[in-house]
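Holo model, zinc ion. Inputs:
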Amino acid sequence: MGSIPASGTPGDWRNWLARMVWDHEAASSNLVSPTLFMKPTHFKTITGLQIPLPVFFPDATRAVLKTLDSTDIANTKTPGILVNTFHLNNFPGTSVIKKHNGVRNFMSWNGGVISDSGGFQVMSLAKSANSKKNPVTDEGVNFKIPGTSKKILFTPKTSIDFQMVLKTDMVVVLDDFTDLDANPSKERETVERTILWAKESKKIFDQHCLRSNLEPEQQPYLLGVVQGGYNLELRKECTERLVEIGFDGLGYGGWPQNIDKSFNFEIPKVIGQNCPNDYLLYGLGVGKPQDIVGMVKMGWNIFDCVLPTRDARHQRLYVYNADSINKIDIQSKNFYTYFTPNKEIYAHDTNPVSTACDCLLCTHYNRSYLRHLFQIGDMTAGRLATIHNLRFYSLLMEKLRPIYENL
Ligand SMILES: [Zn+2]
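Output:
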């Protein structure tokens, strides 16, 4: 058992307590876990909301869900959104967001907000530049802003500093993405750098909280991200070392798919088994409804993805295979299907898109009209389809809640 921390953040204390109870449990296996280890039941916002878990936050990359305003989002019973650090740092930038005292006020949104680290976009830009020099060093990621000659060094500090300006409810640390085809030494290198950056990010985050006199309940969550590619031993090691540093939760980093494109459930299993029960578990960029169902059954509780909004704009609407909301059965194998309004057969179809949905589209308009709006290229089509898909996902999370609570 480690020594009692003389001071430190709530994360440090939780870490110490977690180790203490683990040691205690190992010595007396008949003991029931104390309540300290209950899995999280809510996602708290820095504005004082308690949102029941599990949650799905759609991607409002540039502080907007395309075609919707913030009241539209709220009307779909979507409890929170994800915003992108890299894009918002570029535009509108720090001074505008500061003027509004955070991204929530900026977009007049009252729900939860998570910011990503910006790492995914930065890594993609840096690696696509085809430079002979490795753009990723222990210091950060070097890259050129597209369409300009401006060169940037994006560091763990850049990411944390801007996320604290955004004033989001969860701050995600910068990690070094392990490519799927990475060899063992590259896998090791990315994990070591991920740990190094995680330590640095934690230090910078704690300094921000201290400088701003933030009490524990006013602090956003801090999330570490687990890397290591397909190497389960390395994933386990990365998880344990991040827990040692002390976070509020961990994210499933890297592509969550196997080479054959099937979803990889082995990695989240290893991550979940090697961190304290009270950690938030975040499936970054996940995903498809069936993948979310599978991960919630393993105790994962936060998800974000571009799928429902992007698919809506491309005429792909998610529809439950049920007559009514009460009859939705997410435990059945094919619990949903896609509705694509561009087909000729819908030209005279006066039925709603779905009777197992209570969204604006399904309660006010029919398939024929939606098809017409898409055919003439009116923006209203995108808005109504996006509203519907977001309600599909908020219903999915409502249906998953009892399953999660009974784990
Ligand atoms: Zn609907």
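The radius of gyration is 22 Å. The chain is about 40% helix and 15% strand.
Archived with the compound record.
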